[in-house]
Amino acid sequence: MASLETPVCDFGWKAIDFDLPGVDGKRYSLAAAKGENGLLVMFICNHCPYVKAVRDRIIRDVKELVGYGIGAIAIMSNDPQDYPEDSFDNMVKVAKEYAYPFPYVWDETQEIAKVYGAVCTPDFFGFNSRLELQYRGRLDASRKEAAPDDARRDLFEAMVQVAQTGQGPKDQIPSIGCSIKWRAD
């Protein structure tokens, strides 16, 4: 299981639209997920220890960001062939078990992960109201274990700034996680 870091934020990069099936039976696009002041696109999965360590914090932060006009969507792009825990049926189970307050969608072809340049889970893309990238950093100091409860909330603070100013912080610490499990072609 390779651990990878995300690249630095490409400020202003425009979000690319998608049409992906959600675990709730609906289909989702950028417009369906976007909030008035921006959008958080998260690449996550079910099996990754880095995601499991922060799942509760992701849920907490997304719930709070709604109050700032930030929408959120989680995309699962791993190939479930080698990682059955990431199957669509298991996505449905995990989303229900944790009462995800955001759409959880499947990128079966892995096309969206590729066009976004997603490299790991979790991988966070924070966009402003014009869907211009303003944040590509970590949730907080957590790794395979959750950071202390009083750890700085990097993602949350950055997205509040994006909601209020349209701009993300200039200094960002990369996210780290398990590599995207690419399909062997």
From TrEMBL:
Residues 9-144 form the Thioredoxin domain. GO terms for molecular function: antioxidant activity; oxidoreductase activity. CDD domains: PRX_like1 (cd02969). InterPro entries: AhpC/TSA, PRX-like1, Thioredoxin-like_sf, Thioredoxin_domain. This is AhpC/TSA family protein. It comes from Nitrosomonas communis.
